[in-house]
Design goal:
139 residues, Multidrug-efflux Transporter Regulator, Chain: A, Domain 2, 2 strands
Length: 139
């Protein structure tokens, strides 16, 4: 099948498939006219990569998982180690997002939300002190 058909069957954009080919994650066959020809195995690999990326694995982690996927003598302990590492990364990101939410929530709570220009959210984003100078003080 051509790249358009492979895109439809794998759920990946053709541009992504070309990128995966460029970095060596997928190797489609070539027809006599040098067009890509995606067979059943290439389609399996593309679907595997799509699902791996949906779980947030990096390209290099996908490469390692793909190597394990294609190795019938693989040890599941290696697969589990990669997935466990990904869980740790997700947990770190969750903690980071929770801290970010808490900080932003405090700023929203401190902001009067009225018609005055003073706003602790803007001050924080600008790296400014708690109160900005007034127009009268600038003159």
């Amino acid at each position: 099948m051509n790249i358009g058909e492979a895109a439809r069957h794998s759920g990946l954009p053709a541009k992504t498939i070309r990128y995966y080919e460029e970095i060596g994650l997928v190797r489609p066959d070539r027809r006599d006219n040098n067009y890509r020809d995606y067979g059943a195995h290439a389609l399996e690999v593309l679907r595997f990569l799509r699902r791996s990326r949906e779980f947030g694995f990096t390209i290099e982690q996908c490469r390692a998982l793909l190597t394990l996927y294609e190795d019938p003598t693989r040890c599941s302990s290696r697969v589990k180690a990669l997935a466990s590492s990904r869980i740790g990364e997700i947990d770190d990101k969750i903690r980071e997002l929770e801290a970010l939410r808490e900080s932003l929530g405090k700023l929203v709570h401190e902001c009067p939300g009225d018609h005055d220009p003073d706003c602790p959210i803007i001050d924080e984003l600008a790296g400014a002190p708690a109160q900005r100078p007034t127009i009268a003080a600038m003159r």
